[in-house]
Design a protein that fits this description.
globular; 163 residues
Length: 163
């Protein structure tokens, strides 16, 4: 009975942090995790800032809890397993927060976010190497997303591409 409970209890964190198994795709799981965010980004782009921020905050808290549970159940509390892609999902939502859903903007956000997440320039790389656990897994993607968001603000709105 106890073994069944433990197995069942491991499945939910795995399902959530891998976005239903997307994180186990053989090539570029983080890229797939970012792409999976597009339908919810499309929906949320027509909602208020309050709705978008609420979604992001709830997603952050959910991610934090389930990544921690997954790391503990996988016996790798200080690692960033490749199959954990909910952080990329969250990052994409932050990167396009408050922007309209336009193909060129979303494509630019996606490419820039993925490049920053892969290359990890300072301070993203510093966080990735020095902050461990569930919070560290999320924080490097949050920083990459905030840098992406800031660049998009300058490029797309200061230059009045979308007005």
């Amino acid at each position: 009975m106890k073994d069944k409970f433990i197995k069942k209890n491991k499945k939910l964190p795995y399902f959530i942090v891998t976005l239903g198994g997307v994180g186990n795709l053989p090539k570029a799981p983080g890229t797939w995790g970012s792409l999976v965010a597009l339908p919810s980004i499309f929906y949320l782009s027509s909602q208020s800032w309050v709705m978008q921020i609420t979604f992001i905050l709830l997603l952050f808290l959910l991610s934090l809890v389930f990544i921690k549970k997954y790391l503990v159940s996988s016996h790798c509390p200080n690692q960033d397993p490749k199959e954990v892609v909910i952080d990329e999902f969250l990052g994409m939502h932050i990167a396009v927060l408050g922007f309209p859903f336009h193909f060129s903007l979303i494509a630019t956000a996606f490419l820039l976010f993925r490049c920053l997440d892969i290359i990890k320039p300072f301070p993203i790389g510093f966080v990735d190497k020095n902050i461990k656990g569930a919070f560290g897994i999320l924080l490097d993607d949050i920083l990459a997303a905030l840098v992406t968001w800031s660049i998009l603000r300058v490029v797309f709105f200061k230059l009045q591409i979308f007005t």
